[in-house]
Fold this sequence. Notes:
The protein is mainly alpha-helical and 130 residues long. It has helices at residues 2-11, 14-18, 26-56, 62-96, 105-129.
Amino acid sequence: MIDFVRNVRLWFAPEEVRREGHTPDYRFSLANERTFLAWLRTALALIGGGFAVDQFLPDLGWTWRIGLALALLAAGVLCSLRAVNHWVRCERAMRRGEDLPASRFPALLSIVVAVVAVAMVVVVLAGWAG
């Protein structure tokens, strides 16, 4: 937990990250930044999907609509927070000459998106049948 709090502080103090270790090849830092931006695009897509479910599926039962929308919105929020945390962790590891940190988050996000997708399939099939 203490490491997480330290990382959150580093989100807003990139100059502290730059003081650690030595400057890696810029290509690696830029690749890390592109990965960060890809995670942000994923977060924005999830958030947009959550709003789309809420706004464009009014015939869907309230519980289903709100549940699916909130699941997508929550995944988007988590994805955006995880993006910056992962960026800081990778940048620090590269500067220290350490292995890049492993993460279970992609697997967790994939499971959440798959569960929401299966629920959407059920909703669509139930809508056609009903």
